[in-house]
UniProtKB/TrEMBL annotation:
Gene3D superfamilies: NAD(P)-binding Rossmann-like Domain. This is SDR family oxidoreductase. Keywords: Oxidoreductase. Belongs to the short-chain dehydrogenases/reductases (SDR) family. It comes from the Bacteria.
Length: 243
């Protein structure tokens, strides 16, 4: 489904990075991956072992990373902003403005930078896809998580707006918006293994369970493939019926 597609994914050791990269590589994609940990050679090697055929990049700046992929492959077919950042819990009275700025920087500004530089090359090629791995949380809002939910909501709006701006260049832009997916970033092992805590979490989900990361990875494959060529400007929920 993704044979010969050149794909760049960020925060590759977090959120949907590993399951998504594995699923896309299995479908024939050429994966380039960014992660803060990849400044370390051992971390790069570990990722490349876990995702055979992938290339883990030591670079960290969006502009340099995209240029590296373009130099190596001549094009970038799919840009996946798999931005991950802790969902900091704080009532508004206690919320730190610095924490809010850091959340916005990680979940909105960085993805905007990648989209900005990637779209330049995609326009020249008259084709491309930009996917923001965001969250379903803004659909309903979550009390005491205003910083995280606001940042994710901004990203969802960014995807919808860029879709209208870039559509005439044959560039599709969507947000994959999960919630309640098994991920140590948001559901640490100690919570999953706590029966009472797990029941409390899953009681909110119509399907009665957390989503599997592999299921989300398969959804990412679809969005990255030509099968989604007429889908753009959408916030596509993956939340077991919660959203």
């Amino acid at each position: 489904m993704l044979k010969n597609k050149v794909i760049l994914i960020t925060d590759a050791t977090h959120f949907l990075g590993i399951p998504g990269s594995k699923a896309m590589a299995t479908e024939g994609a050429k994966i380039y991956a960014q992660d803060a940990a990849f400044s370390d050679a051992d971390s790069r090697a570990a990722f490349e072992t876990e995702v055979p055929g992938a290339t883990a990049l030591s670079l960290q700046e969006p502009e340099a990373i995209v240029e590296k992929v373009i130099t190596a492959e001549g094009r970038l077919d799919v840009m996946i902003n798999n931005d991950a950042f802790p969902a900091l819990k704080a009532a508004i009275d206690d919320a730190s403005i610095d924490d809010f700025r850091e959340t916005i920087e990680a979940l909105m500004v960085r993805g905007f930078r990648y989209a900005k530089v990637a779209s330049k090359h995609m326009k020249a090629a008259s084709q491309g896809k930009i996917i923001f791995v965001s969250s379903a949380a803004p659909k309903h809002g979550i009390p005491n998580y205003s910083m995280y939910v606001a940042a994710r909501g901004g990203t969802n709006a960014l995807a919808q707006t860029l879709a209208k701006e870039l559509g005439r260049h044959n560039i599709q832009v969507n947000a994959l918006a999960p919630n309640f997916v098994e991920s140590p970033t948001y559901f640490p092992k100690e919570i999953i293994e706590n029966e009472a805590a797990y029941k409390k979490i899953t009681a909110q989900i119509p399907l009665g369970r957390l989503g599997k990361r592999e299921e989300a990875g398969d959804y990412l494959v679809f969005l990255a493939s030509d099968k989604s060529n007429f889908i753009t400007g959408q916030v596509l929920y993956f939340a077991g019926g919660w959203a």
